[in-house]
Amino acid sequence: MPRVLLVEDDPFVREGVQLGLRRRGHDVRAAGTGEDGLAALAEFRPDLLLLDLMLPGMTGVEVCRQVRAHSQLPIIMLTARGDDFDVVIGLEAGADDYIVKPARTEVIDARIRAVLRRMDDGSTGRPAIEVYGDLTIDRVGLTVSKAGRPLTLAPSELRLLLHLSAAPEQVFSRQQLLENVWEHTFHADGRLVDACVARLRGKVEDEVGNPRYVQTLRGFGYRFGPL
User: Fold this and answer.
1) Which is more confident, 85 or 103?
2) Which residues carry this modification: 4-aspartylphosphate (predicted)?
């Protein structure tokens, strides 16, 4: 039973989402403020954080940054239509995905299960451990290190790196990555990909402005390499 911590200040939205997700098999704890949400993290130990972007007092972006400072807990942000600027800030702060409100419970449920779904365990026949320069990827242990130093990657960052590195030199469009990494089967927001690439580069590259591993082909998408 997935354990979900919902942080939402609107009591009607909070109760509706909580009830709907419980009916779909989730164990849900709810909080109305960012401060209460952070306090519930240690006690409840959720599998995923469902976080409203616009919270009173401590905003969802601030909560996201605090969580990311010490945890790689999957985070999905809830946002109202028109909050484009705040969506970008939330993604840059470390959110793995976002959902525009109002959203049907089945949509939220599907997005949660997609984020929590187990990543590739190396059963595709690829080597368990791959070394690219000073970057080492363990596809079974789901760990990444650079020059022998373990890297802490958020779930979406790790999934993106695993997917790109599974086909070095192959170029993936944003839509392909949205479908294969985020499991969005509709035309979704490419900012999810761009923000995740930026965060990933900040961890695996020596020079973010001159990336060696995660490269952009303008007008086409992203690729891993050259090596």
Assistant:
1) 103
2) 52
